[in-house]
Amino acid sequence: MYEKILVAADGSDHSKRAAHEAVKMAKANPQAFITLLYVIDYEKARTEILHGQSSDEVHLERRKHLMPLEEIFRSAGIDFETKTLHGVPGPTIVKHANETGYDVVLIGSRGLNALQEMVLGSVSHKVAKRVQAPVIIVK
Predict the structure, then answer these.
(1) Strand order in 135-138's β-sheet?
(2) Distance in angstroms (rounded) separating the CA atoms of residues 108 and 139
(3) Looking at the predicted structure, is the pLDDT value of residue 105 above 60?
(4) Which residues, in sequence order, are CB contacts of 66 under 8 Å at separation 6+?
(5) Average pLDDT over residues 104-132
(6) What per-residue confidence (pLDDT) applies to 47?
(7) Is pLDDT above 80 for 54?
(8) What DSSP element (H or E) covers 58?
């Protein structure tokens, strides 16, 4: 079974469902450890600061996204850590996952329609194509 589990999260409902799936996996293996990864997009962070939010307000807003996910793991009694990285989400998740050597990566689907995904691409699709471990996209 999987021991090193990465959950790439943005606080959306899809990432909450990915966290619940990670709990199921972790309960099947007592040695399992989950890393909850949140990537702060530089462009988005800069826009938030430019629109008058202080860095403390921005940090508090990010914590609000992660707290429900952390509570999912705490309430299930699962060992986990929260890691925050800066960069473009897709490539940053891929780089971290490949360098750290996770057994499996779970990521929520953003729910783009076919046209949006073709034009924009999706973080989950980029991660699934480039991470060297199995990737589970949770809808």
Answers:
(1) 80-86, 33-40, 4-8, 104-108, 135-138
(2) 6
(3) yes
(4) 9, 11, 36, 38, 82
(5) 76
(6) 56
(7) no
(8) helix 55-76
